[in-house]
Automatic annotation (TrEMBL):
SUPFAM superfamilies: Periplasmic binding protein-like II (SSF53850), Winged helix' DNA-binding domain (SSF46785). The keyword Transcription applies. Keywords: DNA-binding, Transcription, Transcription regulation. It holds the Pfam family LysR_substrate. One of its GO terms (molecular function) is DNA-binding transcription factor activity. Belongs to the LysR transcriptional regulatory family. InterPro entries: LysR-type_TF_proteobact-type, LysR_HTH_N, LysR_subst-bd, WH-like_DNA-bd_sf, WH_DNA-bd_sf. Residues 5-62 form the HTH lysR-type domain. One of its GO terms (biological process) is DNA-templated transcription. The lineage of its organism: Bacteria, Pseudomonadati, Pseudomonadota, Gammaproteobacteria, Pseudomonadales. This is DNA-binding transcriptional regulator, LysR family.
Length: 291
C-alpha cells in the first residue's frame, strides 16, 4: 500500500506554490485560507520539513519546497494525460438539479438556452424533489425558503418580490377590485400556508381583511391559473408572472411591492462543490439571477 498524503493536500501545495499566496490559492480552490494553511501544515508535518518561508516581502518556497513543486507538477501532468487518454471524446456530463416546479417552469426554463449554448457538454436533468432521491445522485438543489441551509454551501439567488394581482375582468372602470369581495388565493408550502397575504396586508396597513379566508392550493402554478381565470386575488412573486404582467393578463391591484422574507437558495453539498460542472452552473446561475 502506498504511503502518501492525500491528493487534496498535494493539490493545495501545488496551488500555493504556483501563486506564492495562501489567500489566492484559497480562492482558486474555493476553500477558506484557514483550510489551505491547515493542509500545508499537515504536509510539512508529514515530510518533517518546512515548505514555505514567510517574510514581510511575502511567501517564498524553501529549498525543500522548491524541489518538491516541479516534481509534483509533473506527477499531476502525468496523471492528467493518463486520464485524458482513456476519456471518451466529447463525453457529456449530466448535471442533476432538484428545483421547485413553478420556479423551474416559469424562470429557469426561460434561461436554459443560454446555459446550453455556453456549456454544450453538460446535460441538465431538472427534477422536482422526491423523498426517494439519493442525495449522492443530486448535484445541487434550488430551494425555496427563509434562510441558508445549515450544511454545505448555501447561496441566496434572489428574494421574492410580492405584489397583489387580479384578472382584468375583476377591475371595474379602471378601479381595483375590492379585497373583501373576492376570494384570497393562498399557496401551501410543506402543508402550511405561506404568509404572503399577511405580509402584504400589513405593509398596506389593512387590518380589516381576514387573511385566513380564501382558497388554498398546493402549487404556485395553480394559484396563477386561478387568478388568470378570475377566480380570486393573489399575492405572487412578480418574477414568476413577468409574462402575464407584460401582456396585461394580470394587473397589479396597487403598486405596493413587498420584498421577502422568502427567497430562492442554491444549495450544494460539500462533496459536490469541487465538481467543475457544479461550479460552472453555480457561476452561471449567479450571473443570470442578478443581471
Amino acid at each position: 500500500m502506498r504511503q502518501l498524503p492525500s491528493l487534496n493536500t498535494l493539490r493545495v501545495f501545488e496551488e500555493v506554490a504556483r501563486h506564492r499566496s495562501f489567500s489566492q490559492a484559497a480562492v482558486v480552490l474555493n476553500v477558506t485560507q484557514g483550510a489551505v494553511s491547515r493542509q500545508i501544515k499537515q504536509l510539512e508535518d508529514y515530510l518533517g520539513v518546512a515548505l514555505f518561508s514567510r517574510s514581510p516581502q511575502g511567501l517564498t518556497l524553501t529549498e525543500a519546497g522548491a524541489a518538491l513543486a516541479p516534481n509534483l507538477g509533473q506527477a499531476f501532468d502525468h496523471m492528467e494525460r493518463a486520464l485524458q487518454a482513456l476519456r471518451v471524446p466529447n463525453l457529456r456530463q449530466r448535471l442533476r438539479i432538484v428545483a421547485p416546479p413553478t420556479w423551474a417552469t416559469r424562470w429557469l426554463s426561460a434561461q436554459l438556452r443560454d446555459f446550453c449554448q455556453r456549456y454544450p457538454d453538460i446535460s441538465l436533468s431538472v427534477t422536482q424533489h422526491n423523498s426517494h432521491d439519493s442525495p449522492a445522485e443530486v448535484d445541487c438543489e434550488i430551494r425555496f425558503g427563509l434562510q441558508a441551509a445549515a450544511h454545505g454551501q448555501s447561496q441566496l439567488l434572489v428574494m421574492e418580490r410580492h405584489i397583489a394581482v387580479a384578472s382584468p375582468e375583476l377591475f371595474s372602470n379602471g378601479q381595483a377590485p375590492d379585497l373583501k369581495r373576492f376570494p384570497l388565493l393562498h399557496i401551501l408550502h410543506g402543508d402550511k400556508r405561506l404568509q404572503v397575504w399577511e405580509n402584504w396586508l400589513a405593509s398596506m396597513g389593512r387590518d380589516d381583511i381576514d387573511a385566513r379566508a380564501g382558497l388554498e392550493f398546493s402549487t404556485l402554478d395553480q394559484v396563477i391559473h386561478t387568478a388568470l381565470a378570475g377566480g380570486g386575488l393573489a399575492v405572487i412573486d412578480r418574477q414568476m408572472i413577468e409574462r402575464e404582467l407584460a401582456d396585461g393578463r394580470l394587473l397589479p391591484i396597487t403598486p405596493v411591492e413587498v420584498v421577502g422574507p422568502y427567497g430562492y437558495w442554491l444549495d450544494v453539498a460539500n462533496d459536490k462543490q469541487g465538481l467543475s460542472k457544479v461550479q460552472l452552473f453555480t457561476q452561471w446561475l449567479s450571473l443570470v439571477s442578478n443581471p
